[in-house]
Design brief:
It contains one helix and 27 strands. The chain is an all-beta fold and about 350 residues long. The longest helix is centred in the N-terminal third of the chain and has 5 residues. The two termini are about 30 Å apart.
């Protein structure tokens, strides 16, 4: 697929909430060239490098990992630079940042309340507790995993609990009581739970990657899509993919009735009520390296990030909810995370 080359690198816009998508680009590892792009869904215009442009050339740093939007602030997690930026999504200007000697490899930030958030880390057997109002780390949650190989990833809230998937070299979900900041339950779901989401029935879905390589000390198996009752914290159903598959990026659409994920360079769609995995892909992606996925919460348009060769500027392809190509635009290097605004 030919990649368009025209973008607006220096935005003179005021984003209107409900009409935009932030794209965090990882950049090249150890090059310190992570960047932030903004796509105006109404105008069909992309604005690249908006953080640097709005902050006198300041850089995000190395390996932009993830984003979350909470109460009018966009939080940008930059993994290898050990920092989380607070950004005004309407101006792209920095409002503050969280740094700490304990923040060694932040991955995802999840808000428990306006005054408390959890931060997961790679190869750390603790979850950090942070105060977003003071930009400080206020505590830690011991997960019980082995130090040095533990990796908590994504988190979702369910009542007074947060459920998190433990990814690299792990097999479990953990459930945390947010009133005590303690792990109360552990559930084994398969080798390397990669991503999680909640459907419209309140059921938790977990996508494992099966270990990724035959010599993985934790195990190597066919990846799984697992349905979990978050109240009983029990597995309800397990769907097995093929050995050697590498699924990722589990999502729901706006209704919460359908699941989407990437596997084998394709986008797959499955009803939450399905009795088997889909036999055919929903979208046969025509790009080079599908790397991230999001589904629009307003109209269920599907956006797939293309990392191309992981060294040059990437692209995002937008599809309608029926899988028709609508648009394509260039971003920074290695677009890897989306956040709706």
């Amino acid at each position: 697929m030919e990649k368009p080359s025209s973008v607006n690198p220096s935005p003179d816009i005021v984003p209107e909430q409900g009409h935009g998508l932030f794209i965090l680009c990882e950049g090249t590892f150890q090059a310190g060239n992570s960047s932030l792009s903004f796509y105006d869904t109404e105008a069909g215009e992309v604005y690249n490098n908006v953080f640097s442009s709005a902050n006198d050339g300041a850089k995000l740093g190395d390996t932009g990992q993830s984003m979350t939007l909470h109460e009018g602030t966009l939080w940008v997690v930059v993994n290898s630079s050990h920092v989380i930026f607070a950004v005004d999504p309407a101006t792209f200007k920095e409002k503050g940042r969280i740094t700490s000697p304990e923040m060694t490899s932040p991955r995802y930030m999840h808000f428990v309340s306006d005054g408390k958030a959890y931060v997961s880390q790679l190869y750390d057997n603790r979850i950090l507790v942070v105060d977003p109002e003071t930009y400080s780390v206020t505590g830690t949650i011991e997960t019980g995993m082995e130090a040095g190989s533990a990796s908590v990833e994504q988190m979702v809230s369910y009542g007074d609990y947060v459920i998190a998937n433990c990814w690299s070299y792990q097999k479990d979900l953990i459930r945390i009581d947010t009133r005590t900041d303690k792990v109360t339950d552990v559930l084994e779901v398969g080798v390397q739970p990669q991503s999680i989401c909640l459907d419209s029935d309140g059921k938790l879905w977990v996508l494992t990657d099966g270990g990724g390589w035959a010599e993985n000390p934790t195990g190597y198996e066919a990846p799984r899509l697992v349905k979990v009752d978050p109240v009983k914290f029990e597995i309800e159903e397990t769907f097995r993919l093929a050995l050697g598959d590498s699924p990722s990026e589990l999502q729901t659409d706006a209704s919460g009735d359908n699941l989407y994920f990437l596997n084998g360079g394709k986008v797959w769609k499955m009803s939450k009520d399905a009795s088997s995995l889909p036999s055919e892909p929903y979208i046969d992606f025509a790009g080079s390296a599908p790397y991230a996925l999001t589904v629009c919460p307003w109209n269920s348009d599907i956006y797939v990030a293309d990392a191309v060769d992981y060294a040059q500027n990437g692209a995002v392809v937008r599809y309608s909810s029926d899988g028709t190509v609508l648009d394509e635009f260039r971003t920074g290097i290695c677009p890897g995370s989306f956040c709706w605004y």
